């Protein structure tokens, strides 16, 4: 495979990308349908939210070990393992549904198992992209990855909404299983280039636990990458709080039909941003894109809280989600260029654990912050009703709006602080490319 040309390598990447796109859409169908199934049978927002927790937390916790194994094993095998494990857990849910024995805890368990296998998927996919795509095309390739995510976010709920009335949830889950099989077949039909091992990677291939710890050691030894990781983790926490509260904020000022439209507009912004990144490839200094579009996202959140209304929700949702894939793809380019391919599994897995590890905390804190802290501040005769209430408003939903202003302001401060921290702003100059 060392004789593959750049063009043929990129063709392999496109085939992998298409298989993952199909799989993402199938997973989105099941996620949407199972969410409805749980909520309709329990009426509990807490039990509904636990699906999200079980879908994310196991994969985050297992990331360091998965990253060490990814650097030991072929990347193609890791992706096949991930898709196969997720497919089997999906098949078990379908069989339980058909036999009428499905319980809520089955869904939690299956989500946790699928999340554990997914710990292999993202780092292996990102590391494989580095092997297959020339440096000058990494921005476009990562834009394509973000476009696949956006397309799944837009298409899956719409398709599932139609299918759930015709082929029922069982049929949807079997479609998801078929998409996993399709993805595995695409991976079986191709070969990845061999990973050239550098001395640093060899020196740290000892016990599995030592290899798992190596990713953290590598990042902390490079202040620019550590700053980028901390920056993304902080922003993920702030925007994670916002993401949880988008639905109650919109529903406080608009009917359910408008909420669906706001989500669609946001998804369209994400898709357009992804397609732009796929065609354009990003700026020469990707860190500037990360910082500037984070700033735009923070300003959008502030505006949504200051002027909560239907037109504002449409505009801010579009702007926020438009910048999201550009941030993700640009950040990914930096990591892919600065980390050698043979250690990317370990480094990317630790990066994922820390950056995404902020999200469960955001999910857990968002509700109590809104219900117990911010909502009481802006009720009639509340502590802030006569001051901030005159600017934002007083009544149901305005406490969440104030929380949006706070989270958005902190996001803006994070972007500004990131720009004025030299190690982060000059990460691309101070760290040499690894390939």
UniProtKB/TrEMBL annotation:
It holds the Pfam family MFS_1. CDD domains: MFS_MefA_like. GO terms for molecular function: transmembrane transporter activity. The chain crosses the membrane at residues 12-39, 45-70, 77-98, 173-192, 225-246, 252-280, 287-306, 312-335, 347-366, 398-421. The keyword Transmembrane applies. Keywords: Cell membrane, Membrane, Transmembrane, Transmembrane helix, Transport. One of its GO terms (cellular component) is plasma membrane. It comes from the Bacteria. It is a multi-pass membrane protein. Residues 12-426 form the Major facilitator superfamily (MFS) profile domain. The keyword Transmembrane helix applies. InterPro entries: MFS, MFS_dom, MFS_trans_sf. It is found in: Cell membrane. This is MFS transporter. It comes from Dendronalium phyllosphericum CENA369.
């Amino acid at each position: 495979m060392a004789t593959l040309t750049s063009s043929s390598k990129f063709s392999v990447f496109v085939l992998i990308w298409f298989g993952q796109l199909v799989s993402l859409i199938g997973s989105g169908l099941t996620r949407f349908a199972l969410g409805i199934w749980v909520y309709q049978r329990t009426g509990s927002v807490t039990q509904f939210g636990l699906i999200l927790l079980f879908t994310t937390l196991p994969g985050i916790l297992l990331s360091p070990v998965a990253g060490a194994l990814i650097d030991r094993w072929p990347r193609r095998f890791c992706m096949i393992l991930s898709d196969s494990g997720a497919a089997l857990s999906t098949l078990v849910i379908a069989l339980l549904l058909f036999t009428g024995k499905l319980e809520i805890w089955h869904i939690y368990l299956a989500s946790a198992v699928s999340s554990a296998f997914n710990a292999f998927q993202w780092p292996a996919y990102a590391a494989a992209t580095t092997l297959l795509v020339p440096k000058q095309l990494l921005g476009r390739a990562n834009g394509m990855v973000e476009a696949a995510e956006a397309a799944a976010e837009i298409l899956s709920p719409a398709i599932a909404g139609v299918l759930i009335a015709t082929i029922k949830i069982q049929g949807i889950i079997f479609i998801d299983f078929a998409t996993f099989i399709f993805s595995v077949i695409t991976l079986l039909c191709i070969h990845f280039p061999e990973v050239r091992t550098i001395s640093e990677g060899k020196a740290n291939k000892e016990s599995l636990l030592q290899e798992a710890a190596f990713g953290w050691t590598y990042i902390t030894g490079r202040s620019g990458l550590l700053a980028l990781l901390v920056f993304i983790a902080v922003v993920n926490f702030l925007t994670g709080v916002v993401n949880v509260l988008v639905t109650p904020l919109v529903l406080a000022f608009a009917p359910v039909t408008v909420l669906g439209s706001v989500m669609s507009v946001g998804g369209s912004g994400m898709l357009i941003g992804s397609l732009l990144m796929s065609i354009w490839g990003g700026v020469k200094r990707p860190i500037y894109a990360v910082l500037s579009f984070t700033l735009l996202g923070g300003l959008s959140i502030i505006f949504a809280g200051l002027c909560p209304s239907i037109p504002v929700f449409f505009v801010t949702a579009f702007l926020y989600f438009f910048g999201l894939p550009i941030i993700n793809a640009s950040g990914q380019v930096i990591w892919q260029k600065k980390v050698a391919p043979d250690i990317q599994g370990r480094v990317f897995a630790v990066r994922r654990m820390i950056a995404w590890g902020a999200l469960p905390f955001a999910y857990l804190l968002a509700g109590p912050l809104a219900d117990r802290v911010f909502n009481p501040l802006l009720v009639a005769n509340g502590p802030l009703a006569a001051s901030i209430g005159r600017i934002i408003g007083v009544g149901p939903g305005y406490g969440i709006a104030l929380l949006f202003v706070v989270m958005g302001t902190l996001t803006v401060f994070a972007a500004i602080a990131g720009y004025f921290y030299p190690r982060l702003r000059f990460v691309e100059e101070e760290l040499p490319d690894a390939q």
